Amino acid sequence: MSNLKLAVVGAAGRMGRAITRVLQETSGVEVAGGLEAKGSPHVGQDMGELAGIGVIGVPVSDEPLALMTHVDGIIDFSTPETSVFLSELTAQARIIHVIGTTGFNAEQEQAIAAAARHARIVKAGNMSLGVNLLVALTRKVAALLGEEYDIEIVEMHHRHKVDAPSGTALMLGRAAAEGRGIELDEKAVWCREGHTGPRPGGAIGFATLRGGTVVGDHTAMFAGPEERIELTHRAGSREIFARGAVKAALWAQDRKPGLYSMLDVLGLADL
Questions:
Q1: Is 195 a catalytic residue?
Q2: Which residues contact 267 (CB under 8 A, 6 or more apart)?
């Protein structure tokens, strides 16, 4: 069986370079291309040199349509606008599209779902095994504990992150809401300032921290009468997300077109 040929979107970025390194060390896959925006100084550069692993003979391209014709899938940690645009191309090409991008609005989510009628799309706010286990556990704990346990989602990322709350924090909030049988949008408290009054019953609160070089820390906190349960994941490097994304691509190659999550990939959807 031939290797799965995968291209990396944002090949010159920190995440793109990590994905290239993981692809090179993973059996059953190969680096088949990289994509950067037109005008990028990295177009034409060797992806291996960018990733710090030496020349691998695969240049960075700025032609997404041409790239789709010779790959089996793409791994995409970019922007919502870019991911939606690329999903239209992966749908046309009937290939795999692994999306680790966060910050989509409702209209963009609908566009991704529409593309999944023809592409095999695995989309998650976080690709790591540990985080997805945390999501499944958060849903389970929320279902077991009553409303006397207040739920707070706390997250911290590096100073360069542009969206808040993080996609992972939203995953945790949605999992907690699902466990409680409620709608997150109806119960979420996104920020607090000034005289807020008592905490609303059944609320799911979010706290967002930014600073330094933190890759990603997330905690689902259940604060009850005289006790507190905290489920925490701390990311040590971007490679954990890259490894999860590559695992998702390998899993998707035998699937029908559709929109999947990392919980599907890891068999955690029913936990």
A1: no
A2: none
